[in-house]
Amino acid sequence: MESTDGIRIGIGGWTYVPWRNNFYPAGLVQRRELEFASRHVTAIEINGTYYGTQKPATYAKWRDETPEGFLFSAKAPKRIMASRILAKTGPQIDDFIGGIAELGRKLGPLVWQFEQGKKIDADDFAAFLALLPKSADGRALRHVLDVRDRTFVDADFLTLAQRHGMATVFTDSDDYPSFADVTADFVYARLMRTQSGIATGYPAKELKAWAERAQLWAAGGEPDDLPRIAAPASALATGRDVFLYFISAAKERNPAAAMALLHELKLAPAETFRP
User: What is the pLDDT, as a whole number, of residue 5?
Assistant: First the structure.
């Protein structure tokens, strides 16, 4: 699929048994699920890397199974973010990025997720951000901060993220800090309210609203109907890339929600799946 004005719409992962009933065609072998999914959404967030890194050859295989223009986001390993002293995780960071860089031009943002219950020291966190490399194998890297400690998410956190050019996650879930402040030249949103009883996961009216927000973000503006921590900055003269994923909640509906939003945005596949 081609992205429109830098907008990419995706899902979390591609291996989920219920999708074999309502997303993947009957009889599709599991080894071709990524090939199929990547021709129906424009990005996928890899969640498996949170629990363990893959071999470079695996990343290369995923790269080669997906069409041109497709991007993977990836969650960094939990063992890094759960470290007692973040400032000492440099070798682990380098190991993770050294492997996943095998995705090449299909490597999108890397998500650094700090779970609820993880108390963060401000100085240690600042030292950690300084460890995150800006490039790998000659390609620029984009970093996303998903901090779920509500006491840490404040104006100082936003300033630090902005200083490093890193995005912060917007989520529409009440379970996590929800704020739409833009701190980088791209936006990263995780939508977590799909409903089992709706074929497209979200009502049509809400999908239309998300399409409008994505287009506004992509044009350099910021929606005025989402929660914020600080006042919005002036609109950018140039546009932004936007990554919007349907994650968790009624997971069986997430592919349908992503495809419905792509349709609302008038995005069409650049390649079709060939059985």
Answer: 54
pTM given for the model: 0.95
Domains of the chain: 7-264 (3.20.20.410)
Tokens 């995706």 sit on residue: 10
Q: Which two tokens stand for residue 130?
A: 């300084």
Q: How many Å apart are CA 168 and CA 143, to the nearest integer?
A: 9
Count CA atoms closer than 13 A to 274's CA, side-chain side: 5
**Per-residue tokens: 252:** 């069986």
For 87, which DSSP code? G
Q: What is the pLDDT of residue 2?
A: 41
Beta carbons of 240 and 215 less than 8 angstroms apart: no
Q: Cα–Cα distance between 88 and 168 in angstroms, integer?
A: 22
**Tokens matching residue 157:** 């956190």
Alpha-carbon distance of 106 to 62, in angstroms, equals 9
Q: What single-letter DSSP state applies at residue 220? A: T
Closest CA to 3 of 274, 238, 215, 256: 215
Buried-exposed string 59-91: b where 16+ CB fall within 10 A, e elsewhere: beebbebbbebbbbbbbbbeebbeeeebbebbe
Residue 206 contacts residue 172 (beta carbons within 8 Å): no
**Number of residues that this document lists for the chain:** 275
Q: Which amino acid is at 240?
A: R
Question: Can you point out the beta strands (E) in the chain?
Answer: 7-12, 43-46, 71-75, 107-114, 135-136, 139-140, 143-147, 167-171, 186-191, 241-246
3-state secondary structure of 75: strand
Mean pLDDT in consecutive groups of 10 residues from the start of the chain, 275 residues: 70 96 93 96 96 93 95 96 95 96 97 90 97 96 96 95 97 94 96 97 98 95 94 78 96 96 83 67
Q: Pairing state of beta strands 71-75 and 43-46?
A: parallel
